[in-house]
Amino acid sequence: MDQLKPNPANSCPLTILTFLERAAVVYCDCTSILYDTTTYTWLDTYKRCRRVASVIKSYGIKRGHVVSVVAQNIPAMYELQFAVPMAGAVINDINTRLDARSISIILRHSESKLVFVDYHLQSIVLEAISLFPQNLRRPILILITDDHLDQDSSPDFVDTYENMVKKGNPEFKWVRPESEWEPMTLNYTSGTTSSPKGVLHSYRSIFIMTFDSLINWDVPKQPVYLWTLPMFHSNGWTYTWGMAAVGGTNICLRKFDASFIYNTINRHNVTHMCGAPVILNMLANYPHAKPLKSPVHFQTGGAPPPAAVVLRTESLGFFVSHGYGLTEAGGVVVSCAWKLKWDLLPATERAKLKARQGVRTLGLTEVNVVVPETGVGVKRDGLTMGEVVLKGGCLMLGYLKNPEATSKCLRENGWLYTGDVGVMHPDGYMEIKDRSKDIIITGGENVSSVEVESVLYSSPVVNEAAVVARPDEFWGETPCAFVSLKEGLTLKPTETEIIEFCRERLSHYMVPKTVVFMEELPKNATGKIQKFTLREIAKDMGTLPRAISRI
């Protein structure tokens, strides 16, 4: 057979930007964005993105330059997911809950040339810029205004977003990647160190991940998607671009409010939502919650959802899908693929199954749980713990300016090591047990904080729960539970009662020796409970005395 080679007709670089171009034709008069009284069609969105991209380009932004965005889930934030790469730049969405120092570190490390700033967040970004060394070039600042507010802006901003839309070219010939391996997105991990790692994804990995996300969740054409997941979190798990592929309606909102969410779901016939388990918990515990008029598909990730929370939300009309992913993978890469025979199981059993992460999605080549030291897969017994490793075309290029961290994560043996601890069940479904740093080792036994938390969530009085290690004079460390209680309790439980509740449901060594009651547990911007903060609190409480720890 003759040797055939690629040619320009069949080797075009993969890019998700063509999804928007197609949506402007297929879904031209269909609603793309809803926000308060603002409505756009897909043709509007395509033209607005091209206009903004043309002005970005006019500021001297070149291929590969980083352009940052600090904004809530508003229309401009959505449009910039397309407009920035359309100008050839790398988009860097920044966590809106970071302090000025952290934002300053990110802007300097990424060498960001241009920053789009939500009006509500301008003060913290200006403070971040003020922390730059005097001899370092400042990025150009663009203000994203809100038509509903009376606004004053700092002279540090050279333009406004809407002005860029007005003066931009709607026929701008957007910049296509020369190679699908070119970097497209830069997301900084929400780590606890002073220097979070910058995760670079290519056009190729984003294209694969976006397709994979739609297929894995069985997203139909023209869904109504409510943005309860921050878009800055792995670019909204790629659903920012995915909604263009299927002509969906994006309902934008600035902040999460359970009452508003329920009203919006019923008013606009919302079909899909994403978010961390804490969002599910807030929806489940909303005191005025009523069953939904029509089912809503809810994809959760970031932490294993407690079975009790899944059970409650599904009773309200949410159909919960559980996925596992990380910034380095670009989105959900392992999910609990549902089997029809499981529909015949009792509700409690179904909820437990949904709490498992599951099997690899189609866009991932392999997933395994291995012994970190040897790389050998653990026994598929649902008990033996190891590190979760991944392999596939949706994975990151690496960490920006950090070859040491890149080589530690992307090993020469062809696997990405996640740092997550899990088990593999006999049926081939994986289950996350903890982050490696969150495993509690008490008397030589490994305790999964997730497993203890799941029991705490099954208590009728517990609203939120997190378990960390507390230093212990006898056992080395023991589980310490932090809980917030549900509203409206006439009689609040004691520490002893919470411990006894766990003792009836867990092995003795897994039972918390300490329970701390809090009004609300500390969380990051994606809704994850900040265990590093709780670990510091537990550490400051001091070592549990020998006499007490042996009880």
TrEMBL record:
The protein's name: 4-coumarate--CoA ligase
InterPro entries according to UniProt: AMP-bd_C (IPR025110), AMP-bd_C_sf (IPR045851), AMP-binding_CS (IPR020845), AMP-dep_synth/lig_dom (IPR000873), ANL_N_sf (IPR042099)
Organism for this UniProt entry: Fraxinus pennsylvanica
Keyword Ligase (UniProt): yes
GO molecular function: ligase activity
Recorded metabolic or biological pathway in which this protein acts: Phytoalexin biosynthesis; 3,4',5-trihydroxystilbene biosynthesis; 3,4',5-trihydroxystilbene from trans-4-coumarate: step 1/2
Keyword Ligase: yes
Every AMP-dependent synthetase/ligase domain range: 20-400
